Input
Amino acid sequence: MGKYAIFLVLALTFSMLTYSYALRNSIFISEHRTVQSFSYSQAHNIAQSAAMLAINGIRSGDIIYPDTIDEEWEGMNGGYTLEIYQDPDPDNSQVIVQSTGRFYENKDQINGNGVQEVAYTINIGLLIGTTKWDPTFDQALHAEDNIDLSSGNAHIDGDVTMNGQNINFGSGNSTDYKIDGRFDIGPDHSTDDLPYDSADRVKGGEDYIGNLDEKLEYDMPEFPVYSEVWNNGDRNNIDNSQTINASDYDGARIDRIDVGGNNVLTINTGKEGDVSKIIVGEFAIGRELIFEGEGRVEFYVESKFDVGNNSKINDAGDPNQLMLYYRGYDEVKLEDGDDETLTLGGNTIFNGSLYAKEANVKLHGGARIQGNIMTGGDSVEISGDTSAISRLIYAPNAHVEMNGGGNQPAVVSGAVISKSFTANGNSNIVYNPDLDVELPDVQIKNSGYPIAWWN
Output
């Protein structure tokens, strides 16, 4: 064999050896990457599982933060570390859960003999404190349980929902339907247990009767803390006819506004976008409160709110310009024993929204309110020739009762959220989703530590 042939054989041998080595190396890298991918996937699974254990523990109260938890998880051939703490940023009301999952590629590492560990970290934010109150309501009437439509010409024009199933349609002509919309009961109840003539009392018949997908939860939002509003000292009492600029009283407290007799209080509310917040100890209007301008005024009434017969509150104004918070303490008029009752009657006109912390609310005798009514009390009564054009009557802790007469109907245009509901006589709710009445800018406590973000 010539020397060139020997060189050729050597070159071919070298090439085959190089190719064989490269092939084995490629296979090794591929297998290593497969193992590495599996390892990271396992570490990720451990981190996610540990995070859910932490979230459930926080929600149940079994885990109190701040806390650090480090555990081995032999069944998963790994372990995890949980760091749980409250976000130090005061603008973020959140609990931070940092979950690091570890996967041991050598299972003997649990006993200290291995060397290879793959880790994966997940960060989660859980909401605490409060968020903006923005409830969903797309029905004419909701009650936790017990709806009584048995008396007179009660009629609901819109959908009706309830978490229970106890409804009374009463007796009468089976063609007299009571609900012009859907009727859905709680998910844990059977429509077979409803009154036998329910399909006749719902305009759409049995096709419009069913179950909610889940219970509807309606909680009261946080009532404002007055001390957080009071930052501009005190002002003199107002007790006669006069015109004031709302901006001069923004953040201030007035011990008493008492405009009785034929006196009229006129408030210059400022330009659109202006908001003035005024604390008032006792507030009484005997004749009229007039708003001029396009700004908004929020009254924070401490202990007394009296409106005389035939009084007019913001009669010609936009209801979105007036928000009245009513804390209702010792000097509130008492009715039926110990219940605090805020009463508007005698052809009173009130264009604005009202949030009563604890007082019951009674509208009667020709009262007209255009705006939202909210209360944490246990009773709302709407009687006689009374109408409420409300985007929302929100009283989830209360029995809401409407009592209309033959020629004096009680009418609500909007939506009613209640604990229980009764309609007597000529009483009607007409759902109107197009009412341009803003909900108050209040907060609601977060329940159950909802997840804000996950990465």
User: Anything to note?
Assistant: The chain has a mean pLDDT of 85.
